[in-house]
């Protein structure tokens, strides 16, 4: 789990033994039932990708709780929703399948779970029919799953869910920026 850069800093700060113990006790390659429950309860996560040259990109992915879900001990899936059309993250996955996901709970019981692995972007999958608003499916095979200490997570309260999160049987809400004169003439129609 660690490379030379990690080890150099661990040695500088005297934390190599701690890092090794954390890996030994907390890291896993398969999702547990607790992992699945935690991920399924979240309404967002952060997705880190890099292109073929290693240039990074980090994006926010959000939806109704359960939009990202563990379907098997070695499979996490989430839909891609209509966005700005740049496809920075998913385009990166086509060039470099290595991915990092960070799930954070900021409520009464803060928590954090990291999922590193390999991802595949799928254009035609039967599961999309059960994911309102999903236009693509991302399948993640984990290589490293591990919780992090929640001590720096602020306690925040959800005031209301996003009006833009897709809902079954409801027409999608379009963001105002898509009607701005600078963009309106190039916004493609929704695919689903």
Please outline what is shown here.
This is Pyridoxamine 5'-phosphate oxidase family protein. The termini are far apart.
Walk me through this protein's architecture.
The chain is of the alpha+beta class and 192 residues long. It contains four helices and seven strands, in the order αααββββαβββ. A seven-stranded antiparallel β-sheet has the order 2-1-5-6-7-4-3. Strand 1 (44-50) and strand 2 (56-62) form a beta hairpin. The radius of gyration is 18 Å and the shape is globular. The N and C termini lie far apart (39 Å). The model has no long low-confidence stretch (mean pLDDT 95). It holds the Pfam family PNPOx_N. It comes from Phenylobacterium terrae.
Structural class: alpha+beta
**Average residue-wise pLDDT:** 95
The profile of the biggest β sheet is:
7 strands, antiparallel
Q: Give helix % range.
A: 10-25%
Low-confidence stretches: none
Please give the radius of gyration in angstroms: 18 Å
What fraction strand? 25-35%
Total domains: 2
How widely separated are the two ends? 39 Å
Number of strands: 7
CATH superfamily of the largest domain: Electron Transport, Fmn-binding Protein, Chain A
Figure out the total of helices.
4
Dominant shape: globular
Per CATH, the architecture of the largest domain is Roll
Task: Give the topology string: H per helix, E per strand.
Answer: HHHEEEEHEEE
**CATH domain topology of the largest domain:** Pnp Oxidase, Chain A
The first-level CATH class of the largest domain is given as: Mainly Beta
**Order of strands in the sheet with most strands:** 2-1-5-6-7-4-3
């Amino acid at each position: 789990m660690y490379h030379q850069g990690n080890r150099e800093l661990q040695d500088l700060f005297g934390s190599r033994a701690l890092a090794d113990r954390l890996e030994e006790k907390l890291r896993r390659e398969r999702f547990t039932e607790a992992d699945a429950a935690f991920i399924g309860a979240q309404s967002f996560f952060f997705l880190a990708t890099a292109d073929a040259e290693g240039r990074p990109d980090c994006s926010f992915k959000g939806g109704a709780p359960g939009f990202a879900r563990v379907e098997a001990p070695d499979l996490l899936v989430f839909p891609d929703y209509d966005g700005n059309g740049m496809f920075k993250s998913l385009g990166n996955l086509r060039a470099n399948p290595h991915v990092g996901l960070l799930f954070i709970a900021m409520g009464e019981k803060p928590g954090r779970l990291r999922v590193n692995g390999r991802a595949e972007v799928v254009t035609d999958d039967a599961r999309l029919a059960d994911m309102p608003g999903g236009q693509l499916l991302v399948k993640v095979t984990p290589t490293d799953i591990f919780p992090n200490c929640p001590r720096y997570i602020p306690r925040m309260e959800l005031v209301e869910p996003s009006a833009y999160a897709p809902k079954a049987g409801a027409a999608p809400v379009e963001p105002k920026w898509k009607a701005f004169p600078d963009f309106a003439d190039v916004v493609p129609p929704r695919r689903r």
